[in-house]
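Box 3.1 A note on notation
Throughout this textbook, protein chains are presented in two layers. The first layer is the amino acid sequence; the second is a token string describing backbone geometry. Keep the layers aligned when reading.
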Amino acid sequence: RLYNNETELFNAKGTGCITQLWFAGDLVWRNFGETIIKIYVDGDSEPTIEFELLLSVGVGFNKLTIDPWGQRRIGNTALSGGIYNTIKIPFEKSIKITGRLPEHDIIPVDSHGFYFMARGLTTTGLPIPILLSGGALQLPTNTKLKQQRLESYVALPNEQVTLYETNQTQDIGGAYYMIAMEADNDHSLHYLEGRFVAFIDGEEITLSSGTEDYFLSAQYFDLEEITLSSGTEDYFLSAQYF
């Protein structure tokens, strides 16, 4: 069962890689998607990765899934569960996964029934190769998946908001993997015109001319929810018309 404090779901020592996570809860648990998952990699004292279940698969505002959907990378196949991802989470020494009930449960209770699976592999010999893009990109064996969060931020008109920035004092490379956004505006949808820009090794690169363009949609997501898969990589969204 899952409680109001952190409950340990999985703990493993050694070298390996998580390749799939799956979560489910009590029948008709309406804010199940707000359940908090924390992942500690290689003894980190603070969560290396932390997420709400629905937002982790690109669904914002705890929107209940009526029509089940799934891709190779992510999916949500049931009303109170069936949330999964196949994001690779490598570890060199250890990994621990915990869960906690949402901050504000719709029907306050001490605990909920909770179901969880972690799949992956471990090794006692050579490091596990980490492959992306169908094997076209191999990452170093000491690669570590990290997360940066920006929460409850109120942006001003025309403000350029930094979503992610690496530590400039460390001479290391990396690869940007996923973005999940939950944003709203009380007055209009014009905020979706904001450009996505990346600054890579000092060079400014325009990724898209608007927010919905970045997610390969158009006209402010006017067909409401969409899920996409393109080539060897899935686009991490279940975009909604805000």
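The helical segments are 53-56, 211-214. The first strand starts at residue 2 and ends at 3.
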